[in-house]
Structure formats: C-alpha cells, structure tokens
TrEMBL record:
<keyword id="KW-0676">Redox-active center</keyword>
<dbReference type="Pfam" id="PF13462">
    <property type="entry name" value="Thioredoxin_4"/>
</dbReference>
<dbReference type="GO" id="GO:0016491">
    <property type="term" value="F:oxidoreductase activity"/>
</dbReference>
<dbReference type="InterPro" id="IPR036249">
    <property type="entry name" value="Thioredoxin-like_sf"/>
</dbReference>
<keyword id="KW-0732">Signal</keyword>
<comment type="similarity">
    <text>Belongs to the thioredoxin family. DsbA subfamily.</text>
</comment>
<protein>
    <submittedName>
        <fullName>DSBA oxidoreductase</fullName>
    </submittedName>
</protein>
<dbReference type="InterPro" id="IPR012336">
    <property type="entry name" value="Thioredoxin-like_fold"/>
</dbReference>
<keyword id="KW-1015">Disulfide bond</keyword>
<dbReference type="InterPro" id="IPR013766">
    <property type="entry name" value="Thioredoxin_domain"/>
</dbReference>
<keyword id="KW-0560">Oxidoreductase</keyword>
<feature type="domain" description="Thioredoxin">
    <location>
        <begin position="18"/>
        <end position="227"/>
    </location>
</feature>
Length: 228
C-alpha cells in the first residue's frame, strides 16, 4: 500500500474523503444486511397461516427462514434442531414457525428458480396437513442437491413426495404442477425482504434476530425470552 509522506496539504482532504467513503460503505452494508448482530430490534411477522412445530400456546416463538437449497439450513435441521426440539418444543416452552425465503437460485442466476419450486412443494404438503409439511421438509433436506445447480425440479420434487407416508401424491402433484402455492411463497419472501433477512437460516426468537443458528445461541435467546 502506498502511504502519504510529509505534510502535503492535500493529505487532509484525502483523509476526509477516505472517512466519508468508509461511512457510506457502512451505511450501504447496513441497508443490505438489515440489523447488525445483537440488535435488540423486534420484528413482527405474520405467522397466522404458517406451519408450526410445537404447541400453539407456547410462550416463546421461533421464526425460522429457510431456503431448501441452503446447506446451512440442512445443517440446522440435522444437527441443531433436534436438541432444541427436545429441550424447548416438546416441553411446550417454545414453538417453531417455518417461513420460506427462496433466494439462492436467483442469487446464483440459475436458469430455473428451483429454490421457489422447492418452497412451493413444501407448501403443497402443508395444504394437506401440518404434520405432512414437516415430513416432506425432512425428506427434501435428505435429498438436497448442490446449491449452485438446478436439482429441485417439479419431477424430482414429486419423486421425493413418494417417500412421505400419508401424503396424497396425486393431490400433491396437481398442486405443484398448477403452482397453487406460488402466492403463499411470494408472501413469505416479502416478509423476509421487509425484515431485511440477510441469509438462511435466519432465526428470530420473539421477533429478535439471533446472531447464530447454533444450538447454544438459540438456546440462550430462548432462555432469555422465557425469563421476560
């Protein structure tokens, strides 16, 4: 890096310009990413028509935004959620509300928006029942492909549906083929955009963004909410 030397009067102007540029960059990052880690801002989400894991009257609400092409979402579901479910959800202390945020296919400029197709498929399972939503979501994560490639085609999504016990696969296929849940997915995505969700999985505990999806961080946020 070239450094300024001596006492050239242009140095002051350059330093001021650098500081202004840094401030503008910080503002731009804030606008794109939303609230910084540890923010105490509370976001109100419409959870009235969303899939719920746990008891509806649980005192703490976890809102989880996921993209089914997201490997970190799969990791959360496989590694971290089971312990949270045992400790908080199964005991009635918290409930988990799932909201779709299908953005990866668009971000990668893939020829087919299979992030949205996967979300539509999960919603088609939810149309049949809340339990089938959870079952299909699990199957979908097990069959997850590369995030940088199109894999969640309608054909593949229907094949995966055959592994969900109790799912009416004919109704599921019709729902998916006719894009019957596209509007619901669009509404979910709007909630994510309005909240300036920066990526997935994004986890909010009683409306406050948790700075990590790891079990320890989410547990700490739930424990704090239970004390309030």
């Amino acid at each position: 890096m070239t450094r300024l030397q001596g006492t050239n009067p242009n140095r002051t102007i350059l330093v001021i310009g650098t500081l202004l540029a840094a401030a503008l960059i910080a503002l731009a990052l804030f606008a794109v990413r939303g609230q910084p880690s540890g923010s105490t801002a509370v976001v109100n989400f419409d959870t009235s028509s969303q899939p719920v894991l746990g008891q509806s009257d649980a005192p703490v609400t976890l809102v989880v935004f996921e993209d089914f092409k997201c490997p970190n979402c799969k990791r959360f579901e496989d590694e971290f959620l089971p312990e949270l479910k045992t400790k908080y959800i199964d005991t009635g202390k918290a409930k988990l509300v799932s909201i779709n945020y299908p953005f990866l296919a668009q971000s990668a400029r893939l020829p087919t928006d299979d992030s949205k197709l996967a979300a539509q498929a999960v919603e088609c399972a939810f149309v049949q029942s809340n339990d089938l939503h959870e079952s299909y979501k699990s199957v979908l994560f097990r069959g997850q492909g590369n995030e940088s490639a199109v894999w969640a085609t309608k054909s593949r999504l229907k094949d995966l549906a055959a592994n969900v016990e109790g799912l009416d696969t004919a109704k599921f296929a019709t729902c998916l083929d006719n894009d019957e849940t596209a509007a619901a997915v669009d509404a979910d995505e709007k909630q994510a955009v309005d909240a300036k969700v920066a990526g997935t999985p994004a986890i909010y505990v009683n409306g406050k963004l948790v700075d990590s999806y790891a079990t320890a961080s989410v547990s700490a946020a739930i424990d704090a909410a239970l004390q309030n």
